[in-house]
Amino acid sequence: MDRAALFDVDGTLVDSNHLHVVAWWEALRQGGHRVPTHAVHRAIGLPGERLLDHLLGEDHDHDDDDRLSAAHDTLYGTCFERLQAFDRAADLLRALAGDGWRIVLVTSAKDRELTALRRALDADDAVTATATADDVEEGKPAPDPIELALSLVDVGPDRAVFVGDSVWDMKAARRAHVVPIGLLCGGIPSADLTGAGADTVHDDPGDLLAHLADSPFAAVPAAPDKAGAH
Known about the structure:
By secondary structure, the protein is α/β, with parallel strands linked by helices.
Protein backbone atom coordinates (compact mmCIF):
# COMPACT_ATOMS: atom_id res chain seq x y z
CA MET A 1 0.00 0.00 0.00
CA ASP A 2 1.26 3.49 -0.84
CA ARG A 3 2.33 6.09 1.70
CA ALA A 4 1.11 9.70 1.60
CA ALA A 5 3.10 12.78 2.59
CA LEU A 6 0.61 15.61 2.99
CA PHE A 7 1.83 19.20 3.06
CA ASP A 8 0.29 22.54 3.82
CA VAL A 9 1.83 25.19 1.54
CA ASP A 10 1.54 28.73 2.96
CA GLY A 11 4.09 29.15 5.74
CA THR A 12 5.16 25.51 5.45
CA LEU A 13 6.79 25.22 2.04
CA VAL A 14 6.54 28.83 0.85
CA ASP A 15 7.41 31.94 2.93
CA SER A 16 4.07 33.69 2.43
CA ASN A 17 2.45 34.14 5.86
CA HIS A 18 3.78 37.66 6.39
CA LEU A 19 2.32 38.72 3.04
CA HIS A 20 -1.07 37.27 3.99
CA VAL A 21 -0.96 39.09 7.33
CA VAL A 22 -0.36 42.46 5.70
CA ALA A 23 -3.01 41.83 3.02
CA TRP A 24 -5.68 40.78 5.55
CA TRP A 25 -4.75 43.58 7.96
CA GLU A 26 -5.08 46.20 5.21
CA ALA A 27 -8.32 44.69 3.89
CA LEU A 28 -9.80 44.78 7.39
CA ARG A 29 -8.55 48.33 7.94
CA GLN A 30 -10.19 49.46 4.71
CA GLY A 31 -13.38 47.84 5.94
CA GLY A 32 -13.30 49.79 9.19
CA HIS A 33 -12.02 46.99 11.43
CA ARG A 34 -9.12 47.45 13.85
CA VAL A 35 -7.46 44.07 14.26
CA PRO A 36 -3.88 43.72 15.55
CA THR A 37 -1.44 42.02 13.23
CA HIS A 38 -0.56 39.35 15.80
CA ALA A 39 -4.20 38.24 15.83
CA VAL A 40 -4.26 38.12 12.03
CA HIS A 41 -1.06 36.09 12.02
CA ARG A 42 -2.53 33.41 14.30
CA ALA A 43 -5.60 33.15 12.07
CA ILE A 44 -3.60 32.49 8.89
CA GLY A 45 -4.32 29.00 7.62
CA LEU A 46 -8.06 29.25 8.07
CA PRO A 47 -10.25 29.59 4.96
CA GLY A 48 -11.39 33.18 4.38
CA GLU A 49 -14.87 32.84 5.87
CA ARG A 50 -13.60 31.07 8.98
CA LEU A 51 -10.75 33.58 9.31
CA LEU A 52 -13.18 36.48 9.39
CA ASP A 53 -15.40 34.71 11.93
CA HIS A 54 -12.33 34.04 14.07
CA LEU A 55 -11.15 37.66 13.94
CA LEU A 56 -14.46 39.53 13.96
CA GLY A 57 -16.69 37.08 15.83
CA GLU A 58 -19.27 34.73 14.35
CA ASP A 59 -21.99 37.34 14.99
CA HIS A 60 -20.32 40.03 12.86
CA ASP A 61 -22.13 41.48 9.83
CA HIS A 62 -21.42 38.92 7.11
CA ASP A 63 -22.73 41.17 4.33
CA ASP A 64 -19.23 42.64 3.96
CA ASP A 65 -17.35 39.33 3.94
CA ASP A 66 -17.11 39.03 0.17
CA ARG A 67 -15.72 42.55 -0.16
CA LEU A 68 -13.15 41.95 2.59
CA SER A 69 -12.05 38.69 0.99
CA ALA A 70 -11.84 40.32 -2.43
CA ALA A 71 -9.73 43.14 -0.99
CA HIS A 72 -7.36 40.59 0.56
CA ASP A 73 -7.11 38.68 -2.71
CA THR A 74 -6.30 41.85 -4.65
CA LEU A 75 -3.70 43.02 -2.16
CA TYR A 76 -2.09 39.59 -1.86
CA GLY A 77 -2.10 39.22 -5.63
CA THR A 78 0.27 42.17 -5.91
CA CYS A 79 2.81 40.15 -3.89
CA PHE A 80 2.96 37.03 -6.05
CA GLU A 81 6.35 37.95 -7.47
CA ARG A 82 7.75 38.19 -3.91
CA LEU A 83 6.84 34.63 -3.00
CA GLN A 84 9.82 32.44 -2.19
CA ALA A 85 10.01 28.79 -1.21
CA PHE A 86 11.81 28.03 2.03
CA ASP A 87 15.31 26.61 1.62
CA ARG A 88 15.30 22.88 0.77
CA ALA A 89 11.47 22.77 0.48
CA ALA A 90 11.57 21.33 -3.03
CA ASP A 91 14.40 19.01 -2.00
CA LEU A 92 12.24 17.65 0.84
CA LEU A 93 9.36 16.86 -1.51
CA ARG A 94 11.65 15.23 -4.05
CA ALA A 95 13.42 13.16 -1.39
CA LEU A 96 10.12 11.80 -0.12
CA ALA A 97 8.75 11.20 -3.63
CA GLY A 98 11.95 9.38 -4.51
CA ASP A 99 11.43 7.15 -1.48
CA GLY A 100 7.97 6.14 -2.67
CA TRP A 101 5.81 8.68 -0.85
CA ARG A 102 2.88 10.19 -2.74
CA ILE A 103 2.99 13.96 -2.20
CA VAL A 104 -0.31 15.83 -1.78
CA LEU A 105 -0.57 19.58 -1.19
CA VAL A 106 -3.39 20.40 1.26
CA THR A 107 -4.14 24.11 1.20
CA SER A 108 -6.70 26.85 1.76
CA ALA A 109 -5.23 28.78 -1.18
CA LYS A 110 -7.52 29.58 -4.09
CA ASP A 111 -6.65 28.57 -7.66
CA ARG A 112 -4.80 31.76 -8.63
CA GLU A 113 -2.90 31.83 -5.33
CA LEU A 114 -2.04 28.14 -5.60
CA THR A 115 -0.63 28.64 -9.09
CA ALA A 116 1.69 31.35 -7.74
CA LEU A 117 2.70 29.20 -4.76
CA ARG A 118 3.49 26.20 -6.95
CA ARG A 119 5.53 28.40 -9.26
CA ALA A 120 7.57 29.64 -6.27
CA LEU A 121 7.98 26.10 -4.94
CA ASP A 122 9.05 24.73 -8.34
CA ALA A 123 8.52 21.07 -7.42
CA ASP A 124 5.53 20.00 -9.53
CA ASP A 125 7.48 16.94 -10.64
CA ALA A 126 7.23 15.60 -7.08
CA VAL A 127 3.56 16.43 -6.45
CA THR A 128 0.90 13.77 -7.04
CA ALA A 129 -2.26 15.72 -6.19
CA THR A 130 -3.69 18.84 -4.55
CA ALA A 131 -6.63 19.21 -2.15
CA THR A 132 -7.98 22.73 -1.58
CA ALA A 133 -10.57 24.19 0.77
CA ASP A 134 -12.77 24.88 -2.27
CA ASP A 135 -13.07 21.12 -2.82
CA VAL A 136 -14.65 20.36 0.56
CA GLU A 137 -17.56 21.49 2.71
CA GLU A 138 -15.33 22.67 5.57
CA GLY A 139 -11.70 23.74 5.56
CA LYS A 140 -9.13 23.36 8.34
CA PRO A 141 -9.32 22.80 11.29
CA ALA A 142 -12.03 20.38 10.10
CA PRO A 143 -10.52 17.12 8.85
CA ASP A 144 -12.24 17.38 5.45
CA PRO A 145 -9.24 18.65 3.38
CA ILE A 146 -6.95 15.95 4.77
CA GLU A 147 -9.54 13.23 4.27
CA LEU A 148 -9.95 14.42 0.68
CA ALA A 149 -6.17 14.33 0.19
CA LEU A 150 -6.05 10.73 1.39
CA SER A 151 -8.89 9.75 -0.92
CA LEU A 152 -7.11 11.27 -3.92
CA VAL A 153 -4.19 8.86 -3.49
CA ASP A 154 -6.16 5.98 -1.92
CA VAL A 155 -4.07 5.90 1.25
CA GLY A 156 -5.32 5.27 4.78
CA PRO A 157 -4.57 7.67 7.64
CA ASP A 158 -2.25 5.15 9.28
CA ARG A 159 -0.03 5.32 6.17
CA ALA A 160 0.17 9.11 6.05
CA VAL A 161 2.04 12.01 7.67
CA PHE A 162 0.95 15.65 7.53
CA VAL A 163 3.31 18.64 7.69
CA GLY A 164 2.02 22.13 8.51
CA ASP A 165 2.84 25.36 10.31
CA SER A 166 -0.38 26.35 12.08
CA VAL A 167 -2.50 25.10 14.98
CA TRP A 168 -5.30 24.64 12.42
CA ASP A 169 -3.08 22.23 10.48
CA MET A 170 -2.29 20.21 13.60
CA LYS A 171 -5.93 20.03 14.70
CA ALA A 172 -7.13 19.02 11.23
CA ALA A 173 -4.55 16.25 11.02
CA ARG A 174 -5.41 14.85 14.45
CA ARG A 175 -9.11 14.90 13.60
CA ALA A 176 -8.32 12.96 10.43
CA HIS A 177 -6.23 10.48 12.50
CA VAL A 178 -3.05 11.44 10.64
CA VAL A 179 0.21 12.10 12.52
CA PRO A 180 1.15 15.80 12.19
CA ILE A 181 4.58 17.41 12.08
CA GLY A 182 4.82 21.11 12.89
CA LEU A 183 7.23 23.58 11.30
CA LEU A 184 8.24 26.83 13.01
CA CYS A 185 8.92 28.74 9.78
CA GLY A 186 5.32 29.98 9.68
CA GLY A 187 5.91 31.93 12.88
CA ILE A 188 3.76 29.97 15.35
CA PRO A 189 5.54 28.94 18.60
CA SER A 190 6.51 25.34 19.20
CA ALA A 191 4.37 25.12 22.36
CA ASP A 192 1.27 26.14 20.39
CA LEU A 193 1.91 23.54 17.70
CA THR A 194 2.58 20.81 20.23
CA GLY A 195 -0.50 21.82 22.22
CA ALA A 196 -2.59 21.50 19.06
CA GLY A 197 -1.33 17.97 18.43
CA ALA A 198 2.04 18.12 16.66
CA ASP A 199 3.95 14.87 17.12
CA THR A 200 7.28 16.57 16.46
CA VAL A 201 8.34 20.13 15.61
CA HIS A 202 11.14 21.23 13.26
CA ASP A 203 12.49 24.63 12.29
CA ASP A 204 11.75 24.47 8.58
CA PRO A 205 11.71 22.09 5.58
CA GLY A 206 15.49 21.87 5.55
CA ASP A 207 15.59 20.86 9.20
CA LEU A 208 12.93 18.22 8.62
CA LEU A 209 14.83 16.90 5.60
CA ALA A 210 17.96 16.55 7.73
CA HIS A 211 16.04 14.59 10.36
CA LEU A 212 13.74 12.41 8.25
CA ALA A 213 15.26 9.28 9.77
CA ASP A 214 14.14 10.41 13.24
CA SER A 215 10.74 11.80 12.20
CA PRO A 216 7.28 10.22 11.97
CA PHE A 217 8.05 9.52 8.31
CA ALA A 218 10.46 6.80 9.45
CA ALA A 219 7.68 5.06 11.40
CA VAL A 220 5.68 4.28 8.23
CA PRO A 221 7.40 1.39 6.46
CA ALA A 222 7.51 1.12 2.69
CA ALA A 223 5.08 -1.31 1.11
CA PRO A 224 6.57 -4.68 0.13
CA ASP A 225 7.98 -4.84 -3.38
CA LYS A 226 5.18 -6.47 -5.36
CA ALA A 227 7.62 -7.75 -7.95
CA GLY A 228 9.51 -9.66 -5.27
CA ALA A 229 6.50 -10.81 -3.25
CA HIS A 230 5.51 -14.48 -3.21
